[in-house]
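Archive entry: two folds, one per protein. Generate the first.
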Amino acid sequence: MNYFQLFSISYMTNSVMSELPYYGLSNTELQKQLTNDRLSMMFDNNEFFDYLNNLNSSCLLKELNFQYVTEEQLTAKLKKLDRNIELSVFHMNIRSLNSKQRQICQLFELLDYEFDVIILTEIWTVNINFYANLFTGYDFYYDLPQDSKVGGVGLFIRNTCTVHELPQYQILSTRTSVVENKWVEVTKESRKYIIGGIYRHPNQNIADFTSLLEPVLNSISDQKLPCIIAGDINIDLTKSRVNENTSRYVDSLLTNNFLPTVLMPTRITPSSATLIDHMYYFDGCGSQNKVAQSGNLLADISDHLPNFMLILHEKMEPTKRPKIRIMSNKNREKFCEKISSTDWSAVYAEPDVNTAYNTFINTVTNAFYSCFPLKTLSRKRSRDKKWITAGLKKCSNTKNKLYKKWITKRNPEDEKAYRQYRAIYRKVAAEAESDYYKQMFDMRSNSIKQLWTNLNIVCSFKNKRKRNNIAQLNVGDNLSSDATEISNYINRYFANIGNDLQKKFENSHSGVRSSDANECWQYCNNSINKSMFVRPVDAAEVMHLICQLNGSKSPGPDDIGPRLIKDSATALCQPLVHIFNLSFTTGIVPDQLKIAKVIPVFKKGDSKLASNYRPISLLSIFDKLLERAMRNRLYYHLQINNLIYKYQFGFRHNHSTTLAVIDVIDSIYERLDNGEKIIGLYFDLQKAFDTVNHEILLCKLQKFGVRGIVHDWFKNYLSDRYQYTLCNSIKSEMLEITCGVPQGSVLGPLLFLVYMNDINVALQGQKVKLFADDTNLFISGNNLSEASELAAECIDKLSEWFTINKLTLNIDKTCFMVFPPDKTNSVHLSVNGKAINKVQSCRYLGVIIDDELKWTDHIHHVYKKLIKYVGIFYKLRNKLPSAMLKNIYYAFVHSYLLYAVEVYANTCPTYLDKLVKLNNKLLRILQNKPLLYPVSLLYDEFKTLPLTDLHKQQLLLFAYKLIHLPQNLPEIFKNYLESNECVHEYNTRSKADLHLHRAETTYGQRCLKYKLVTLWNELPQTLKESDSVSSLKDSIRAYLT
């Protein structure tokens, strides 16, 4: 019995023993066979297998099928086992990620498979952010060497998995044992694994390393979670008998039940073959043993062979072929023909809106199901990259065969033939890839939409996959795997979010009743006598509404998508006009339009908790058309009667987050310039949209002139609403929604503005800053004591308003800041006896405000967002045409820099330096220019400006709008600027200039109003008289450069 047979007895079932390499040979025959294969040096003395023989028969794996494989063989294996793979791990010593990045990317494209975990050792880099997006669809974790560029380990983990870093397992380097390692917990479909990537530097003390590793192994064993350790350990397992320290290292792993899964040499040179790249598997001592397959991949990227391990489900499930509807152009044309030939007389003759709509939607859905029947996919769609042709695959296989021949025979002629062929292959592969992407992004033959679709495919800018299939969920105290039970439970959770929060008020408040509405009406002091009237819709309006639909949006419960409606707009227009007008005149919304399909989307955290899923509510597209028509009428009524609170920036025309930030920051600068102390309060409302009380909302609508049949329409719209959750392809039971504005609706945001509109009445004399439910208040006083007292009073009043309106204040996320910083820590605020957190910085509408107004936190935030594009742009610059690269820069870099640049760039240039340098680097990468290339030419090529000039440009454009286009800005900016002529009557040379108010401090000089006036007055008169914003923008760019 040879070593392989002994290993089989300890670890494998009899049914698979014969599949092992060299099984059935005697030891003499085994050695002879290895010699014939020129592989005998790999197993000198076979010490490693002697250790495996010493293990008892308590197997960790049912099957371990280890082998050398080619790319073609591994691709076939992965495709065959795909649905049965529970976790897949790939490891390779890359020996410089910088020089091998193209080759490793091509390898995975050839394999046509996405491993769950990719572990790379010896990455040799310090500019680690370059590689954050090397593999699209993966998150990057790493550990770098302390004193050199050599070494390092990087873990790329698919973003469909949940990852938690485990710093407690980190092995710290010592003087005699230098090691880089990274440990994470990976959750895939509710199954947790501990993953460790290790690189141990060579010529270090093995005994010291083992001593450092043993406590980690013991701790993981105690956790009883499956664990995979992979890396270049630089300990040759084939020499375990010769070296006592190696023997102890192997013993420590085996004692803790870590099974080695790499059994053959991984580093093969003309003079040696060593097993120094290790992979170990610990099954967590669970009752469900897994089947594993592992091997070495014959790839020539470095002098180390890649290793892989596949953990398989114990029960091999047959492949289930999904059923889908084929939305082909032929089927779409067939649908349009059916709809066009439909007789709608039964709809027109029906006076009841529910019956009319039911007749209409039944006709449409019957046509839909007839033209788009469910089809079973005959085979799994390939993920092949189209530039990897059959010929290129054949060339790769030939190259690998030459490589295998060389490493086994060690013949110089074979080495020369291999290297010559490899050079030819790399050149051909590079040209094929380049030609493919040039055609893919040909600006002349593709639409803009198709170009961006292709870009997302290549770069996965929108590749973050959100799981909506839930394998297991905590249902009460039990962990359930039943799809129906999961679907019903998560639907109940979503449906009861608002109700559960509103119940908190029942003990202290009886609520608002229709017979006694004074409790909430006391704030409605801007009510009007003028009633809202709804004009009927016509065909032109409905056609316009249909044309405005976003064709990429998902369909609702009726499965009719917006693109089909747009294709059949002419035929659908008239019956929709009849139904919409019938709804308006009767005050009834069709019942089927009040049903929502909810898709649970995983956020983060434990996937078995319902609270870690976000509900995505999908309504019928026909409902959105009806709501859009009513929304336009309600918004017009509110605007024409000046009913919307002027400091509400959310969901309004000519309002934006940038303008909201400008308003807040400018008011802070002005008060600080006046010597006042400011307390900024940032309130967080918990599930605000879900907890809107319908009765209170209807009362407020009535005060705003929504009366009679229109009021009946809104009452009907809010009542008798139902939802079901679609999870794991299972529909849950239908549940009624009794509070909250409808999620995913068109009217919901505007109705929420109505609900929040009277909050300012609670604080007479104070200006509450709102963006939908983002509620902020800035209190000032001559000193902190005065400001603190006033802030406490305002908090009590706002808390009362929230309670009366049944909105829940999330005190844990509510915070306050003091401007300038309170070094004495004398300000303490609370809500209902619970302290409010005092912070030094806070996020407000995407901008991080710090109490010193230095903007360093926000600058660092933008820097972190943009640094990831370094690696992406390196990857793209040789694939895409220059015009597309310019579009990419504007979409993903310029847009980040531009957002609120009027505010955050108004700081010390030193603080902006890191962003300026990063922007220069990104431009240089995209334009493929050397380091010493003039920066000014980089900006000229892309027709943009450096950050400081971009700040000036945006301020000047804002000033132009304030002077020439005030109607396109919120009312609060109406008198933002004034000329000298309006301030005094003196006939000075500067009487036509804007009036510059005196600044008492540097805060006043940083006030946007001060900066605007200064820049505008310096601008040449020809630029001030520009015809449009776009022409001024071009002129300013030329002026500043």
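Generate the second and append.
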Amino acid sequence: MTIVMRGGQIGGGDSPQDNVPTQPPRNNPVPSPNVLPESDGSGDQDEGVDLPEGQEPDFPVAELARLDEMINRPRWVVPVLPKGELEVLLDAAINLSKLGLDTRSEACQRFYRDGLTISFTKILTDEAVSGWKFEIHRCIMKNCEHLVQLCVLKLNQDCLPLLELLAMVLNPNSKFHTFNGTRPSESVPTGSQLPDEEIFARPSDLRTPKGWLVDLINKFGNLGGFTLLLERFQSDNAISVPVIAALIRPFGMCHDLLTVHTIEKYFMPIVEIVPTFLDNLTDEELKKEAKNETKNDALSGIVKALKCLAAKVPNQETTVKNLETFRLKMILRLLQISSFNGKMNALNEVNKVIASVSYYTHRHANPEEEDWLTAERVAEWIKENKVLQIVLRDSLHQPQYVEKLEKILRFVIKEKSLTLEDLDDIWAAQSGKHEAIVKNVHDLLAKLAWDFTPEQLDHLFECFQTSWTNASKKQREKLLELIRRLAEDDKDGVMAHKVLNLLWSLAHSNDVPTDIMDQALTAHVKILDYSCSQDRDSQKTHWLDRCVEELKIDSWVLPALKQIREICNLYSEAPPNFNHAQRSPHMFYRHEVINRLQQHHSLVILVADNLTAYMKKAHVLAKEHPDLDPNSVSPDSRFSHVQQVQERLNFLRFLLKDGQLWLCAPQAKQIWSCLAENAVYVTDREACFKWFSKLMGEEPDLDPEINRNFFEENVLQLDPCLLTESGIRCFDRFFKAVNSKEGKLIAKRRAFLMNDLELLGLDYLWRVVLCANEDVANRAIELLKETYTNLGPRLQTSQMEIHEDFVQSCMDRLRAAFDTITVIEGDKDSVNRVRQETTRMVRILKVLREYVGQCDGDYGEERSILPMARAHRGKQLSLTIRFSNQGRSFDDTEVWTHMNDTLGAVRRQILTRVKANNVNMKVDLFVNGELLDPADDKKLVSQLPLRDKMIISAKLCQIGTNMPSSPDSSSDSSTGSPQHPFDGPNVEAENCLPGVLMSQQQGYAQFLFQLADLGCNLNIPALRDEAHAVLKLMPPDTHTYEKLKTICLENSKMGEKSSSPSLESIFYATSSSEVLYTLEVVYTLLMPAHNPMSEEAQSFQYNFVRSGGVPVTLGMLTKNNFLSNADVPTKRAAYLIVLKICKLLLTTVGKCIVQVETEAISSRSSPGSLSPSSPNSVLTGKIAVLQQALTHIPNPNSEFMLRNVSARLAQLLHDQVM
């Protein structure tokens, strides 16, 4: 920021010498490089020069370019010295203006618009003005005189940029004139007595005469400026409002320095001309002027300038008053035209008037000094001319428009002239309008409402209620938002009180949709929450009591309950270590508020009674409308039946939980009775079950002292058929809670241990198993199994007796049902009863199966007495074991196993193969990088992700060391890990398992055959399958097992002389289930899971073949009377076993034939005489085919064990025959 002068640079930097530019000299004939011929204003230069049409006159464009570059630098420079670029350009412009050629020069016009304007703006108004030396200011003054000369020359051409610069030059408050305010005038020297007629301006204050400004004004007058100004207004040439403003504005600013004579001669005629001109403008012309107006204060500026000028002349009070009146008249006209810009400008004018009267009201202490236009007169003008009504007609969707309206309204409110009719007009302006208008008007009212009188506020609320009746849903939402906002930040509580009452009233309207009612109540709570009132706690208490009153009169129950809960939730919960003695006297916690309600109103009893009363009404309604859907809203209510019940229950739970209250016996029984026992709909009972389940959670809300009584007198009295899944969950929680309190169950982590066989509710649990629907019964079976398989310390020693009693209990129940069916089976009228009994039998069998399976699963050791399902050898697998490098070289080891083997057995086999006999050694196995958990050692291979020919990674490690064998391996003490691989099975403990105990009782298996056959006969697959499933879980029945071994042994030894039944007879028994079971036992004896090559297995294999096993087995495949009465699933299972047996026997027979025939041929021929023509060559065909087939059948890869067994058995049979 710099002013350029030759020999020294002055600018707006930190020091006057900043930014010294270097300029090359120009080739001019004059000594100074910057000097151009200076105009002296005499007009003798080129006066007669006429330029051809279209030719542009000369203009110093080089100087213009340099000026533009200098003033547009970041640290600008303005060359103000004599013959500097600015003065040169001004002189050139003056010369062209005198010739009337400046308008034909594009460079000159650009100079007016840019270079000239920017230069004078900087040198007159910049903060750097105060840092320049006196000679610089003298240079600036000289440039200002040149500018005044140029403005006078262009005065009659309405050049707005120059008129704006003239206003800047004559502005007494500019930085330049303020800094030089004490300079004396040269045109009016101090002490001179020049008459007003000879001068145009004189200093008005001796202390700050502003002499340079006086000189500029006088220069303007001496150049004929005032004469030209008056002539412009008196001429017939068209003039616009912006031009009028630009012409008058400079002199309105410096009116204090103008002489009275100057004003009277030149401006008083203008004061008369301008209002007349503006008043004669048509609406269209005024609209156009308003639309084209670039500034918003033109009209205000014109009147203000004229008023300042007229006020300087004595006895012109009437003129000033007329000007003010005229100003208001023009503003009103602008307001009434439809143009948005016009309205905005008019609003700006109104606000300027308001600001001026407000300012003067505070400024003047003496009423005689006040202007004629006062705040009272402006307020009266607004009212008489219905300014508010005009403004409210349109444009309310524009936020800036409403913002200006707000200032007017605040003024009217302040002057106490806002009427109730005005309020009606404001409210009507948004009614039914676009949401943008609604939002703007609502925002406006929310801001203004705090300044309303009580009467106005009441009237506004009446408007709200009137609109509420006919408003749409969306309009009501907007209205609620406005109402809520009115109460925010209310310190005194007056507004909040009114709004709360209004919202309460609106929420009670019968025609209001439920969601709108909810919004009203939500707003109600928010106001209570945000209330800044000193008595906000008593305010909340008041509304809590109002809600309780609604509950008592049973008219508005659910909203009242919701509101109580929401208001209570405004209070925080007490901290865990809450101490009443330490509580602040002004601090209330939620449970204290709820306790107060309980003490004063017995709220729990009140809600329970209300629920009972409602259910009685619901019973009546259901009888009148039997097709009524409980989920649909009833015609005379806002809520469905389900909501009516659920909301009351939810509220009760809230009171109990957050209020730290116990539900007492009378209310618990009352709720159970009306919802569970006397339910109107299924949903009532379901809600009741779920509610009581939550009550009996980890932190129960039901009084523990009444648990047993309630359980026995209410829960156990409910018909089991009515239980749902929620119902059995409810029973489960009561069952465990009551028995735990009685010491019959012991809580341990997430499980309960049974410590007493006489459990409360056990008989009812059996009734649920037998009578409830399928899903509920399954959950009851699970609970029964969970209870009996988790024994406490006191019952651990009686485990075997408990197993026997439980199994016998199941068998007794099965026998009773079986006998019932046997009696009524033939009765056609008893079909449903038969179905019912068979269903019960299926469930009892499922209980037995789940119980036996769980006990087997909990048994943590290796089994030697295997269940039937895994007692035979399964499909063979070959696994390749690959050890990681542990400093000890191991070749890949191939391990043979089968589907019914366990993972623990595979581990033992691996340790044996690698000769790891150290008792502290264990092997970790990995499949695809995943550790096979030692806890799964009891699982069968078929239950693991193992496949034939799979490669398994292995790692040996020490038991008990802290070094893990792999990142994922578990320690030796993992839950469920087996005992050491070299320890034998615990047969004594195994004999205590329920499945083993059942296999040792002859009658159990036989009875299960009967049940399975009954299922086949009655075509009830579930009964058949459950009976088979229980048999599969039991080890082979001891009686059947020994019977088969005895028959085969005696028939093998005695042949036809044996007194034992024939082998064939046992496979053609009348019971198809028994035949299937016998076949399974036979295959288990032939191919036991543990070791089919054992002596015991070999003995039975031999005796079975010798007792006619081969023809008997083949007969089963060929005869029609085998299982002729069995159903298809039983036949399918039996034939599968027969085929497995046939595979072993036929392979054995084939090997025998090959061996016998080979030896027979060999014995008939002498050694060394074999030739292609010998008898051996003739027989080789049949033997070779068979022998060749036996090399591939059975599959050598997958039937390795079967081939070994058959080869050994064939050899044994051959040796016995030979």
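Annotation attached to the second fold: Residues 331 and 346 are 5 Å apart (CA to CA). Strands lie at 2-5, 8-11, 77-79, 745-748, 751-754, 876-883, 893-898, 921-927, 930-931, 950-958.
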